[in-house]
Predict the structure.
Amino acid sequence: MRAALVLLIAGFLPGSGTAKPARIVSMNVCADQLLLLLADRDKIASLSFLATDISTSMMTEEAVGLPQNHGRSEEILPLEPDLILAGEYTARPTVYLLRKLGFEVIDLPVAHSLDDIRANIRTVADAVGETARGEAMIAAFDRKLPKPEDTGYRPLAALYWANGFTSGVGTLASAVVEAAGFRNLGTEIGVRGIGQVPLETLISARPDILIVNEPVEAPAMATQKFRHPALQTAFLDQERLVLPPNLWVCGTPDIADAVAALHETRDAILSSTLANAE
């Protein structure tokens, strides 16, 4: 009897690994994806309504069939979750209420760097009782990343989004570009976070590569600059890379694939530059 009681208590001790949450709710699209990667599917009670939105999530197919919520307390309370994942800006009134009612709510900060991605993976993995799975995921993430090199020359990349916006200091997109061996135009012209770059500045900077989001099917004024004659002419013979917009929304392990792909492009640019110099 005593041995059984010891085992029962041990099962609920932090880190014991036997009392994993069984009804997990995510209210945030970035938490959705880490939860899908780290927890068993039958432990997921609900994901955010953006989990199946291809413009924001890289794991829409995996999310199909799971219940969804819009971050409202009346949706979440009936689920009786034993763990709730939210983002630092997610439905703050709901998060406040859930905490007041005694529910465990973990806020995931926005990932601005590769280290932030690792930290968020560890946070979710520990919370769902899958610490070893999280460490294995981080190890796989790191193996995909190119090793730091000192080539003496880092090509210039320009990130160019709808409405002429770019990503600068303190953004995940800039961290990805720099990890791949590029300099980021947004950082070099002093953009902090997200900011607009004039078309004249973009063209006069003569970046080695222009990185843009996949065009949306519906016409929009926000994307008209992509068709500007000056832009088309200036980058006629320049490298252009089109990436899906959902790649930059969240810090997930998929970021490592983006870094690796960009690094291959950077190597091709370096080879071309060296060949032209000979």
